Amino acid sequence: MDNAEKNSERLEGAGDVNDASTEEEVETKPQRLSVMSFITTELTRGYLLERDKAKFSERRQRVYTFMKTPRELEKFLVYGFFQCLDAFLFYFTFLPVRIVLAFLKILTHPCGVFIPSRYEFLEPAQICDILKGVILVFCFLIVNYIDTSMMYHLVRGQAVIKLYVFYNMLDMADKLFSSFGQDILDSLFWTATEPKDRKREHIGVLPHLVIAIVYVVIHTMLILFQATVLLVAFNSHNKALLTVMMSNNFVEIKGSLFKKIDKGFLYHISCSDVKERFLYIVLLAIVFIRNMTEFSWDPQHVWVILPDAMLVFVAEIMVDWVKHAFILKFNEISADVYHSFSISLAEDMVANRESRAFIDYSDLVSRRMGFTPIPLAVLLLRICTKSFKVSGYTGAGILILLYLCLMTFKVFNSIVLLGKAYTLIDEKKEMEKEANYKKFDKQDYIIDQNSLDKFEQVFQKSPIRGRAPQDAESNLSQSIPNIHKKCAETELRKTESVMELSVSRQKKLEIHSDILEEKHESCSDNDLFKMSTPKEQYLEPGVEEVLGHIKTQSVTKRTSAQSTDGNEAGHSSEDCISSITSTTIRRRLTSTESTV
Known about the structure:
Layout (H helix, E strand, L loop, with lengths): L1 H27 L6 H10 L8 H38 L3 H14 L16 H20 L4 H9 L3 H34 L11 H31 L4 H9 L2 H7 L5 H32 L7 H30 L5 H16 L8 H9 L3 H15 L4 H48 L9 H13 L10 H47 L6 H12 L4 H20 L5 H30 L1
């Protein structure tokens, strides 16, 4: 019978399995749809974007960042451009005055030649100014012998593709010389101003000066070739070379986008763009001066040059916008990063004006942006002296007026830049304060279970537990900012109550001691308890038991020894009460410390 029942159960189980499998087949079997039902489904089916709102919100933020990038980028580029302009104008305005002051200091010390070498009457900054002036003068004299007309015809006779390759080579060489040239100048300045007590580890000031002059001459020639190629492109009839040169700007997008770029590398790219934009403006100014000189400064020729110049400059701006917008998009960087770049430039400018400055401001800008003003200054002097003929008193007056205009613009530009720098630094400090305040916001507290348990234990043992919230877990974020304040108030209140208690007890003890001295002979046991009663109301409940026990022992002693003097009994009761009072005070202090 048992075997038959088991077989029947197995058959029933197998039947259940078969039924489940058939149900699954029915469920997984695809339904047959007609063409009209398919079309109806495609026309009426819907979806909800809010099911993936985080992804769509992120993409919308990317679009906003892409649109915000040109504005933030231009703020940084404009601020950096005027810093480059300020460093460039320094060589035409303040540097000649500083060199004259240095030479006046030398002339006012006629015995300076006989002063020992360990004593230097020229400051390091004045020595660097004199070296800069020497480099400018020698490089200008060397470059002045170069025939720019022959260079122009040599470049114009080449094919377009050769000029395109040549221009790219010149652009790359300019970047390399800009990065290495500032090291050459810094090594010259350090060699000339290094303390004499140190061991000599250099080849000498004169070799460094020769190397610096050679570098400046070569770099000036490279920029002059760039200006000549650009001049040929402007003067060509088919404008093919100009189109090729503008298309060369888009190569920067390919070289910068498809690689991982962090904020530090982006700062380097942004500073390089500032320097490149300033260089383009100087090159366009040289092309404009050269063309206007060839056409005898005909005003109508301005409208011939101006469209091409604007086209080149607008193409450079658009390439910078697109390049930086896609860099921020691919690397997930906020557009506010350019504001931090401006703050970095502002901090450098403010620090350079302080007494602890270690380098000249123009040299600091050169380090940050790879911008070397000396070759550009030499080239601009060479072009202006060949294009403008100045003679007589009228020419001297024009030069003086030009110098005063440049000096005024330099001072105004420096004041505006310094004001903007301090504004940016103040904004940074305000942002840091807001960030610090936000750290202590109530919503920023993260409570774990251990902190919650400790909080409950403290409030269960503290006298302010009656004012504690019922739901400590929900209201803990509201209580934590005030916990230290409440503990301090509790400690102060406990201390004040203990001090008042000790004073009142002392007064009570003095009163009762007087009573005991007057009535010690007729004092009975009930009287002792009555006299002790006023003191007990100031004692804690735990102390009352001890006091009662002491009273019992006191009565026993008085009964057993009737000859005992009443005065002694009074004093013994007073000593007991005083000891209990001190014990009570100690207990209250201990409880206050534990509560805190």
